[in-house]
Write a structure and sequence with these properties.
The structure is a homodimer of 218-residue chains. The first copy, chain A, is an all-alpha fold. The first copy, chain A, has helices spanning 2-36, 39-70, 74-107, 118-141, 144-169, 176-209. In chain A, helix 1 runs parallel beside helix 3 (74-107).
């Protein structure tokens, strides 16, 4: 019984890692659409999101079956509930990628991001993609050290968001209100993707150690 | 045993309604700070958020105790998991109110929102506050009809956000990029508060009927 439980739990975590890889692709393609103004790539992100939603439902069904049929207690119970929370956050990261893709699509045939701020936004996209990529490895390897390191690296995203605000609020800004609003919202979406990535990684720390990251030296 | 379980579950739902009332106060005060530039009121929202976070932890502890000690199955299990999700969303709504209050505080002694767009932003705040207020009644009364009605009323918030964008992107906009960015982000925060309110109400529908709102005619 215990062995069957842990096999099924491993299968849930494999699914979570798979969803995380889909989110990673969504973040990468959304950023590509944003920086190139490619409508087809933006559409691809938007239409692929339904797959992430379906994968989320399958994980929820599995987790509920585990809770109902195996009646886990203590650490096992907390692990299944953590998995339910992780899948909600991963789905939300997919939604945020769709928001990025929709800003890209809205400005086609133009590129939403003015040229001089493109490096900052490109870096936001790269940091978000890298964080999501590391989260799928953290889930697969139950890697506590990598999870704690991820929490520390979140600061670059905050710094990038501040940089983008300095640029768009400077007297040199020549691209008007619309582009500034786009960039403020994009900064917010990437920041939230990064926040959720850290949160999912923290849940892995909790699942493995039974403690929150701060208690294990993060 | 079953009776003890349902008494404890009722106590969890009482706590959820209480947290929802704290969120309602946070939304109201954040909007007040925003429209008056009152730094003290903004600080009040920001410092009170720790109480919402603590209340969330207490609900989580109760819910885990219910799961561990009472081992609910089927509908009872789904209800406890729904309560865990509701408390996460309520805490998030508190965080979003803090974001609103922080924009207010950032612009003190000025008012972040230019005068001609204040009616639109005031209405966003009022709609959000009203939705959160209705959610606490929906939780207390397990009121499926009111929950379904709430989902329909979410449209006003979307419309207000569109209105604010039309105003700040018009040629008549004289308040520069900073105020426009503030209003775009404020619109996003209020919209997310409304989204979470609908989501919490939908979970009440699920708890009472065992079905998602669409299946019961929403």
């Amino acid at each position: 019984m215990r062995e069957a439980f842990h096999e099924q739990l491993d299968s849930v975590f494999d699914d979570l890692a798979g969803i995380c890889r889909s989110v990673e692709a969504a973040v990468r393609l959304a950023t590509e659409a944003l920086l190139t103004g490619d409508a087809e790539v933006a559409e691809q992100v938007i239409s692929a999101d339904v797959e992430i939603d379906r994968a989320r439902e399958r994980v929820e069904d599995k987790a509920f079956a585990l809770l109902s049929l195996q009646q886990p207690v203590a650490g096992d119970l907390r692990t299944v509930v953590a998995a339910l929370r992780m899948v909600s956050e991963l789905e939300r990261m997919g939604d945020l990628s769709v928001h990025v893709a929709k800003i890209a699509r809205l400005r086609v045939p133009h590129v939403a991001v003015p040229e001089e701020i493109r490096p900052t936004v490109a870096r936001m996209g790269a940091v978000a993609e890298d964080m999501v990529s590391r989260v799928s490895q953290i889930i697969t390897g139950r890697d506590v050290e990598a999870a704690i390191a991820l929490g520390r690296d979140d600061e670059e995203m905050d710094q990038l968001r501040r940089t983008s605000f300095v640029e768009l609020l400077s007297d040199d800004w020549k691209h008007g209100v619309e582009a500034a609003v786009d960039i403020a919202l994009l900064g917010r979406y990437y920041e939230r993707i990064a926040d959720h990535a850290v949160s999912v990684a923290n849940r892995v720390v909790f699942v493995v150690t039974g403690q929150n990251p701060r208690a294990v030296g993060a």
